[in-house]
């Protein structure tokens, strides 16, 4: 029996290591965040339907701010629509801590307000219960 309900949410946090910097300025590519969205979507499917589900599509992705190596990023997925086998999810990625290499090599700070870096809408599908 499905527990899929609108508003069901999963949240993951991850430190972004410097080995993931892909561009000048320690920037990390947008695909990194999409991978994290896939991970948190999997947890939502497990909680809602007892199955990992499959990611079917993104209908919208907005890269709003950069992700940098040394950041702690939080990704959240929330069910916004429930179909027979499909679930529409709203995703948001925020930076909650940021490296401060301008102060020292290992300096970092907790941000007073999380910085929204990416928003997306996607659809997952799960087996028929």
TrEMBL record:
Keywords of this entry: Hydrolase
Source organism, top-level taxon: Bacteria
Domain HotDog ACOT-type: 6-129
Listed Pfam families: 4HBT (PF03061)
SUPFAM superfamilies per the UniProt record, alphabetical: Thioesterase/thiol ester dehydrase-isomerase
PROSITE patterns to which the protein is assigned, alphabetical: HOTDOG_ACOT
Record protein name field: 3-aminobutyryl-CoA ammonia-lyase
Species in which this protein is naturally found: Kribbella ginsengisoli
């Amino acid at each position: 029996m499905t527990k899929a309900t609108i508003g069901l949410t999963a949240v993951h946090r991850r430190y972004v290591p410097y080995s993931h910097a892909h561009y000048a300025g320690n920037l990390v590519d947008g695909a990194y965040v999409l991978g994290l969205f896939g991970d948190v979507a999997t947890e939502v499917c497990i909680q809602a339907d007892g199955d990992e589900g499959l990611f079917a599509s993104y209908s919208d992705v907005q890269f709003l701010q950069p992700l940098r190596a040394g950041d702690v990023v939080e990704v959240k997925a929330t069910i916004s629509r429930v179909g027979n086998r499909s679930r529409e999810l709203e995703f948001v990625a925020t930076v909650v801590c940021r490296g401060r290499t301008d102060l020292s090599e290992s300096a970092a700070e907790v941000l007073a307000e999380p910085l929204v870096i990416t928003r997306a809408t996607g659809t997952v599908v799960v087996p028929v219960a």
